[in-house]
Each structure stands twice: as structure tokens, then as C-alpha cells.
Amino acid sequence: MLKAKSLRAFCAASVLSCCTSLVCADLLTVTTEIPATAIPGAGYSDFLEIEQFTPLPGEILTQVDFDLLLDFSGTMGFENTDPNVATFYQLKLTWSLDLHLPEDLQDPNEPPLIGVLASRVVQGLVDPYDGEIDFDGPSGRTFDVVAEDEAGSGGPLVDAEDLAAFTGTGSVALPLTAIYLEEAKAANTILFESLFENVRFEGELSVTYTYIPEPMLAGFVLLVGLALRRIR
After folding, report:
1. Is pLDDT at 122 greater than 80 in this prediction?
2. Partners of 135 in the beta sheet?
3. 158: Cβ–Cβ under 8 A, 6 or more apart, which residues?
4. Which residues, 6 or more positions from 52, have their beta carbon under 8 angstroms from its beta carbon?
5. Is the Cβ–Cβ distance between 170 and 14 less than 8 Å?
6. Cα gap 136→156, rounded to integer Å
7. Which domain holds residue 33?
8. H/E run at residue 69
9. Which residues contact 92 (CB under 8 A, 6 or more apart)?
10. By the 8 A CB rule, do 88 and 186 touch?
11. How far apart are CA 189 and CA 184, in angstroms?
12. Spatial separation of the C-alpha atoms in residues 31 and 130, rounded to whole Å
């Protein structure tokens, strides 16, 4: 009798495990392109519109996850304006981009939904000033730099308030901010000019909605009930 009951309990547990995996099986991924966007010296701030999850009758959204993929670019330049000495130099460009939850869901004590940080450094040696500030020639250099496939992820969002914001027939606006930091150094002189311009970012945001279709949910509840009854 005990063995039979243990066998029934094992079968019920197997059914529950199978049904649980089925309930979590449905995913919908929405990808939003981020076009090439310039970052002004004072920083960039705008909204990224994301398509909401539009449920069919009975469908239930249970989780939202985010994956952000970015390419950064920019131009750096150095000009030695000291006519008396050659110098080693170093230029560094740092990009920082943050994606936030909708404004009414933000917690000032929490970090952004996704933060992506990237930087590039160039260095070398230039001759004494050649008489022209053109970031070229013997005393100057110009570099186009890129940081590709910089990735960040966020979530999962599972709270009812968060899920409600991403459920509907329209879109949800996510605040997006970006800045860049510039750094220029010379080893042998304080007389130099630096150039930082054409600083940009572009990429895509993928939002994955995990949801339960109503017929699957009803079947899961029914099977749970039957399994528990058999154990008795």
C-alpha cells in the first residue's frame, strides 16, 4: 500500500514538473532599433518608445527582461603647441549610457534599469609645434575610435505595477540618458590642444515578454488538482 502511494506521489510530482515547464514556455521578443545619435557636450536625454505586450483574452504577462546592444564612436585629436619640445600624449574617450524604468516607476535609490560604460585610449609621440593647429602633421594627431558590441541587460521585472506598465495596446516610454567624458594628457608640456567631437551611439534594445496563455493556465490548474487528489 505504501509503495503504491509513493508511486502515485512520484507520478503526481512528475506531472506538476512537466506542467510548470509548459506554463513558462511562451516568450515574445520585441526589438527596437536605436539610430545613430549624437551626444552633445552637455549630455543627451530623451525617451525610447517600446511596444507594449498586448495580451489575447486570458493571457497573463509574468516577466519582462531587457537586452541592450550598442556601438559607440567618436573622434579624438591632439596638437602639441609647445615649439620647444616633443611630447608623449594620451587621449581617452569614455561613453556612458543609462536606460531607466518609466518615470512613475523609478526609485531614486535604485540604479538604472541598464547601464553601459565603454572607453577607448590612444597614445603616442608628437614633435614640437609645427605652427598650425590642425591636429595633423608632425605635431598633431587625429583618431576615429569605436567601441562595438557593448552589451547590457536588465530585469527581470515581475512586480504587478511594473508588468502593468508594459501591458497594453500602445507603447511605454523609457528614459534614456548618455554622456561622454574626455581626458587629454601630455608628458613633457602643458602647452597643447585637444579635440573631442562626433561622439555618437547606436544599437538596439530587445525586450522579452514571458507570458502564460489562458488555456495552458487552466490546464495547469486542473492537472495540479488531479495530482493532489490522487496523492490522497
Report:
1. yes
2. none
3. 62, 63
4. 166, 167, 168, 169, 170, 171, 172
5. no
6. 49
7. 2-231
8. strand 60-80
9. 119, 120, 121, 181, 182, 183, 184
10. yes
11. 12
12. 50
User: Cα–Cα distance between 45 and 6 in angstroms, integer?
Assistant: 61
Q: Encode pLDDT of 40-88 as tens digits.
A: 999 999 999 999 999 999 899 999 999 999 999 999 999 999 999 999 9
Under DSSP, is residue 24 helix (H, G, I), strand (E, B) or coil? coil
Q: How far apart are CA 181 and CA 73, in angstroms?
A: 13
Which secondary-structure segment (H or E) carries 175?
Answer: strand 171-186
Model confidence, pTM: 0.80
Q: What angle do CA 175, 150, 142 make, to 5 degrees?
A: 105
Based on its alpha-carbon atoms, the radius of gyration of the chain, rounded to whole angstroms, reads 28
On the question of a cis peptide bond just before residue 156, with omega within 30 degrees of 0, the verdict is: yes
Number of domains the chain contains:
1
